[in-house]
Automatic annotation (TrEMBL):
Its cofactor is Zn(2+). The keyword DNA-binding applies. The lineage of its organism: Bacteria, Bacillati, Bacillota, Bacilli, Bacillales. This is Formamidopyrimidine-DNA glycosylase. InterPro entries: FPG_cat (IPR012319), FPG_N (IPR035937), H2TH_FPG (IPR015886), Ribosomal_uS13-like_H2TH (IPR010979), Znf_DNA_glyclase/AP_lyase (IPR000214), Znf_FPG/IleRS (IPR010663). Belongs to the FPG family. Its EC number is 3.2.2.23, 4.2.99.18. It comes from the Bacteria. It comes from Oceanobacillus caeni.
């Protein structure tokens, strides 16, 4: 599932491609991927200028000239592609937004969705979402205060979107590997130095993921940024740990396949 770095990459690449352009046509191939009747969706979206694209947690918000918003959550298996009909992947697009002869394809929206909402409805959707970990106002002191009030295991806490926004299964593994902490370690057992280190490495890994374009497939034909991030530990069961060369192990934690090094994570 795309996480904060992937959605931030999509946002930064899409803004210069389609920001300020008019949506000339909407094609809906799967009505369950939207939240209103197709006729209503098309009436409110077609011929509207796409003013800006924003990210919150694992969501993108496409803001239209008429004040409406398109809220995207790709969920498991979802992706986007921008280009013409000859370049797009050989997969069914559940939704397509056209900008003349170029199109933004939303692919794999079996669990994901593109919902038409007002700004107030978007704000309501986000009312329980936690802090953005890369926000300059999210300080080490704030993180310490939050951690001091938490119980439970590290992996479960990092996955909790009401605690911190945008971290999912992949990057939680990456963060904990870099911090040399086991995913099932209990938060009250962390000392001050470990909490401080976790904060710094959480931000480092998320920044690195963004800088290297996350792990998704390219957004458009000549996109040489998206997909540059190589996982250090996630989905590498049995491979040598990049730090100590012990084999990476996989264990189910919080109903998620979790990857870690049992030798150098403590």
């Amino acid at each position: 599932m795309p996480e904060l770095p992937e959605m931030e990459t999509y946002k930064s690449l899409l803004q210069p491609l389609i920001g300020g352009k008019k949506i000339t046509e909407v094609t809906i191939n799967r009505e369950k991927s939207i939240n209103v009747p197709i006729s209503q969706f098309k009436a409110q979206v077609e011929n509207q200028k796409l003013e800006t694209i924003q990210r919150r947690a694992k969501y993108l918000i496409f803001k239209l000239q008429n004040g409406s918003c398109l809220l995207l959550h790709l969920m498991l298996g979802g992706k986007m592609f921008y280009g013409d009909e000859h370049d797009k992947p050989d997969r069914t697009a559940q939704v397509r937004l056209s900008f003349g002869n170029q199109h933004l394809y939303f692919i794999g929206l079996r669990l994901g969705y593109l919902h038409l909402l007002s700004q107030e409805m978007v704000d309501q959707e986000f009312q329980d979402i936690g802090f953005e970990p890369l926000n300059p106002n999210f300080s080490l002191d704030s993180f310490r205060d939050m951690m001091n009030k938490k119980r439970g295991k590290l992996k479960s806490t990092l996955l909790n979107q009401e605690f911190i926004a945008g971290i999912g299964n992949r990057y939680s593994d990456e963060i904990l590997w870099h911090a040399q902490l086991l995913p099932d370690k209990n938060i009250p057992d962390l000392d001050v130095a470990q909490i401080n280190n976790l904060y710094e490495l959480m931000r480092y890994i998320l920044h690195l993921g963004i800088q290297q374009g996350g792990y998704m497939d390219p957004l458009y034909k000549e996109d040489n940024k998206t997909g540059g991030y190589q996982m250090f530990v996630h989905n590498r069961e049995g491979e040598a740990c990049p730090r100590c060369h012990a084999p990476i192990v996989q264990k189910e934690i919080s109903s998620r396949k979790t990857y870690f090094c049992n030798n150098c994570q403590h």
